[in-house]
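Chapter summary example.
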Amino acid sequence: MSVYLHTSPSAARLADVLREHCDACGTAACDPFLSPVILVPNTHADLWLRRTWAERAGIVMNVDFPYLEKGIRESFAGDWSPVTKDVLTMAIMAELLEAIKTGEDWAEAACSWVGRMDQSDHFEEQPRTGGGVEQIDGFSGLRLWNSANQLAEYCDNYDLHRFDDPGMEEVIKRDRLQAELRQRIRRRILGHTARDRKRYLFLRDLADGAVLLDPVRKQQVRAFGLHLFAFNALSPLHLAVLVRVARESGGDLHIWQIAPLETATHTVVQRWTHAARSLARLVELRCPECVKREYPEPAGPFAGVLVGKGPESDSLRIVGAPTLQREVEMLYNSILWHLAQDPALRLREIAVFVPDLVTYRPVIDAVFAAGVASAGSSPEGGNKALRHEYAGNASGPLSSWAAGMALLVQPWEPTRERLYTLLTNPAILAGSGLARNAIETWFQALAELGSFRGETGLEGKPDSFTFAKGLTRLRLARVMSDQPWLDLVPSGACDPELAGRVMVLVEQLESTIRQLEGQRQTGSRWRKTLLALAETFLGLPGQTIMAEAGARKQALQLLRELDWLPECGFDTIAAWAAGRLGSITLPPARGGGVIVAGMQDVRPVPFRLVYLLGMGEGLFPTPWKPASPLDLLAKDNNRFPGDIEDAERDRMLFVETLLAVRQKLVISYIDRDILKDSTRYPSSLISELRQLADIPDEAFLSIPVTGWAVTPEATALDARAPDIMSDYIRLNAGMARLRVHPEEAEAARIAAVTSEREEQKSIDLSSIKRVIENPSAGILRYAYRVEKTAGEALSLEADEPFIETDAGNESNLWTLASDLTIGWLLAEGEEPFGDFLKACGRERFISGYQRCDRVSAGFFGELIWQKKEKDLLGQAEGLGQIRTRLRAALRATNPLWSPFVFGPAPTAAREIVRGDLLPGVRLRENLVLGGILPLVWLEDGGKRICLFVDRKFGAQKVANTSVLNLIPQLVVALPSVRQALGLDGQAEVLLVSYEAPGGIPLFPGTEQEACLQRVLDLLEPGTAEQAPAMLLPAKKILADDKRIPDAEGLLVALQNAEENSHDRFVLNPAQVLVQPVVPDTDGIKTWCTSMLAPWIRMLKPDWVIPTSEDDDE
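The structure predicted for these 1113 residues follows.
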């Protein structure tokens, strides 16, 4: 037997040599049905080898490409199962549970690490006092599971890296915990009957000759040899097993290594390639007959980098991005640009490697699925998401069935968020027969009912803000009016039958889980319990039924692991379920999309375009961490060939990535800490790369905070690096590149959106207000119908409101104040406002708000009412003058409307107390205006129209931003709207409030009529894209009454808003079809003149746009 170590920087070259070797051996083989065995590191290496060989030879068949572990298992005969890390974990958990429970002497070491445990499996690090159980650092099962996992990993590493080292055996013997555990788990595992009635064997048993080789495998290895392709790291134990297979088969062992040649002697290269050189030394040490062969073929534009030369021209970009979102947008934009430039480029020739895929995956999914059309695509083609697929063992989506099983054995938490996660699980929905929209309707009702948690009050009476109280109020609505009964106010927030079905499911889940929480059973009994849970609550989701059926089979097989455990508590099972069942995934979609993977999930497949994301300092290579006191291998200061640290592995992965690039490499990182306003730096590998080769300064780029900022820097970036463009949205959505690239402007009309827009027949006053306040958001929601999903719109707050400024309290108190003031204005009699508040206000607060869980209860509620009552009493004088005016108008038989409702008003409009419902106002042929105002009345025979403002608004000083809140009243005051409503178009219009009971006159005219038409123009598909300078949020323009910002100041304000906004739906470029372009200072003034100034001049006719702090309003 001989061992061959084949090295080349080119994976394609190694693949060709390997194919030629197999062809030659196949020709000489006596049996034409024998197949070569080639062990590969991952699925994509398998697929790439098959594809490469097929392209060379026209066909590939009868070749076996197993993973390392599977290849070893298939090399040995007999019915047995390998001892995996998962088996070690379960055996260690079983030993720890029994040892700590029985109080054996050796378990003291385990107690110091895991914590002490009582009969409920609750750990404590300090002695108990008062007979209670003190739970430290979470529930015990999680700590036990984590500890067992760690110990299993350490035990596995001892065997893999020191299986024949007497010194390591001595180190283990000196550690009482691990020495005893090692002996006990070996006895437990060897004596345990595996599923399918097979025995367990350790990997070291195979190296020692405990099992005979498979006869077919011996023939394969004798004919073709045993091949390891693209392995740059291998443990001594794995190598020993493979050498035994090759030696006893009479064949050779071939290791095909992708690495720089020995001529690459630069210190940086030597540092980067330590892992590959360590493997070579290990092979030489274990196999003195090793033969080395090198194949010096160039491998892409970075072949010269490893010998001190610079990369090929324009093949490297190193990009700093201010946020993770912008980093992924840059990636998306760059891929679209290259696809548009090179029609021959295929998606599967593009790879995105991310060290921290868990953090980046949701952002990649959001940006890639945003539906933004690619550059150069026709407008008729519509918006297309960029297909992508994940590589790796856990690359598919999580299984709903397995995740549902894990959720069923987690401690009960009766909160909105916990229940939403539980009830919207597709497998639980399938088992219950409920639809997802029914659950979301129920959660919307919870928000309206003020239900936040599941506990009940004393003696079973529903407590405030609980689910039980909300359900009781829904059920009362079926048999009672809206009058309170035993402090419960009936509510029609949701269909009581639907709410009852959901609550029955919730109560069943709560009862079942709470019952399980107090149980202690053996592992086998727990397995049966979990099977019964699945039978009761879980079903297979219809859309992925086949894939979920496979995941269910895998989960049921994993349940057999519980047979290892002795008697244990619920939290131990919960920790096991979260760790094992919660990680089961469905098969990944293979649609020929862009490959997104961790750093080693696709190695060593070459790609034309490669992107490395998240390459920040301290993130990659993996930083050094202090070793655990239980890691005995870390205490061994002697390093053996084959020992590789995480950072050394990462550096070798970086080298392999360089060698895998065939056209261009883009390395990106986050270069700004927005919270600390500080600079971040790239990975140390970038600095070392500059030491190694001549990297031009032009390769280093930094992109702006927003993808739609038009600044000199952004414009220069467009010209310098068109593949890393700054104006992401406008270029790649095929929208107008106004002010920067006017020659490339094109209309962006989307057929589906246009058809939806043509069906839209109405708009209300609040919509017009929102369009003026924030045109981008208004256009998306009311023209393009881009809305938050029902799930995004739901409130999953865990705590009820307490103080006045809490969101629920604040909005409800404003509604209460409006109801009380208008109710008193329209009331009969001469009761003073203060007496009215004492007689009706508190009762209205209690019955309509506290009993309905709309504001805080108890002590906090009393404080809130006292403050609100004081505020309302301060309005008494002004409100008294308004009531005098109202009664005088009514005596003169002038009409009065409360509320003033016309056309298709919002469904939440108040019940009409006075007046009739008026018809809508037809603004255009296919557009009808509707709306609601709190109170409107006429005076002087209709020659004066009074619009009541139910908020603080006075005549002394009208702030520009306050005008935005008055847009509904200002629109109704326009002559054309008044005439359509049957009011006098020439009448005087007054805004009346408690601060201005005499009224503030309005001055509507043609200027405002034209402005309204411009607002309506923005709602026409395509118009907004052609005039993006008119999409600036008004509050940023009017923030300072003394001046409007210049272009630089506005850009800073917009960037701050994007970074700090809670409404990312509005400002996130990945989800927004239209983003504003920041014009120059003159453009801002022009926009303000056309879109905002007319409304301000309705109140202040002489107002002009201020341009400096000295300008007077």
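To summarize the output: The mean pLDDT is 77.
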